[in-house]
Amino acid sequence: MVVEQIACHCCDLVMELPEPDAGSRAHCPRCGHLVMYSTKNGYQKAAVFAVCGLWFLLLSLPFPFLAFQSQGREQQVSLIQSGADLIHLGFPELALLLFLFILFIPALLLGTYLVVLLPLGRGFVGRWMYPVVRFLFSLHPWGMAEVFLIGVLVSLVKIAGMADLVIGLSFWAYVLFSIFLILTITSVHQQQLWMELDRTSGICRIPVKASAGSALAQGLQSCHHCGLLHSVHDHHCRRCQGRLHPRVRSGLQKTWAYLLTACVLYLPANLYPIMHTRLFGSDDPSTILGGVVALWQHGSYPIAIVVFVASIVIPVAKMMAIIWLLLGVHLGYPHQPEVRTRMYRLTEFIGRWSMIDVFVVAVLVALVQLGGLISIQPGIATLAFAGVVVLTMLSAMNFDPRLIWDSLSQQEQHAVNCGQESLN
Ligand SMILES: [Zn+2]
Ligand SMILES: [Zn+2]
């Protein structure tokens, strides 16, 4: 039974979604994009996971997160205290980055899930829940709890040789919080949640007439948030009330603007030191690449590879991939649209992992402050590099992958029109 017609977010192909059965997955037949999956009792599970996640996040705040001991002196930090220490040391920007990406946004995500899932579980759906769900899914890329954890592990390896490290109770609570956050997010698929809201509220959407092929070629557009099909003349989505645009508005210009700014910032991010280690009064600045080389020389090969891939390979590959995608669209390159769409999805997925090095610096600066003995200060490259990561993420978000398929759709349309003319 066909429940809803949507257009693929990646290639604009109109397709019919069947009734979501537990364990079923629906892929776009043209570009392979996963358009929906459904899990058994997904809403109930996600609500329980979200409550557990928030509980462990609360537990991760008051207790020691890490302790650092050297020559009889000890520095102990909790998550809250590390933010306060960063502000006190004169690095409010780093404190703000930490607070936003590892505490505030993940907590807001879990809280918003509960605001929607608890009433939904009791069979209540209010009109206000639709914009809330829209907001919820726009938050997803910015919650970086698991990226932070990898950053903490890298930090531990970096200073393991300098002193004794003690992992505190809050660290384990934060690990459990990250696991529950991932479980919450993966329990409910966006498309399934939109359909469930309609089903519970009893709203029956009258489908727009659409046939197979590109939505835009048929004078249709799909909502960027909930996927509902509309005429290209509509301005607001009937379901989630989001603004409608056949394609991301000024998407190419915005993608170029964010990308070029990221490219400019990439130079100071790599040329200037990302942190300074002050050992017995002598200053040892290190760049991103210098940090990788030091890890390698100390024999921490896996961690050196992780940092090299996250901080050097991913940002460069991402910028080159976006340039390639943009040029393909500008030049109307019609070949390998599936490959380019896959590359786009990968670029969008991996972007946030480059934040590892920024978190490493934040953790080390908060943790290693033993006065004249040893202390770590952030370098000028830290903020530049955080800027590169955020700007490349915004750049990828503003690129509309359906543009890759548009030149193809025009050719298809042309072929159909030619066929009809020859029949006449
Ligand atoms: Zn598709
Ligand atoms: Zn919508």
Automatic annotation (TrEMBL):
Q: Which GO terms describe its cellular component?
A: plasma membrane
Topology in the membrane?
A: Multi-pass membrane protein
Query: What InterPro entries does its record include?
Result: PqiA-like (IPR007498), PqiA-like_proteobact (IPR005219), PqiA-PqiB_transport (IPR051800)
Task: Give the UniProt subcellular location, in the record's own words.
Answer: Cell inner membrane
Mind telling me which residue stretches traverse the membrane in this protein?
A: 46-68, 94-120, 132-159, 165-185, 256-275, 303-333, 354-374, 380-399
- Family membership, please give it: Belongs to the PqiA family.
Protein name (database record): Paraquat-inducible protein A
Q: Which organism is it from?
A: Oceanospirillum sediminis
What are the leading ranks of the lineage? Bacteria, Pseudomonadati, Pseudomonadota, Gammaproteobacteria, Oceanospirillales
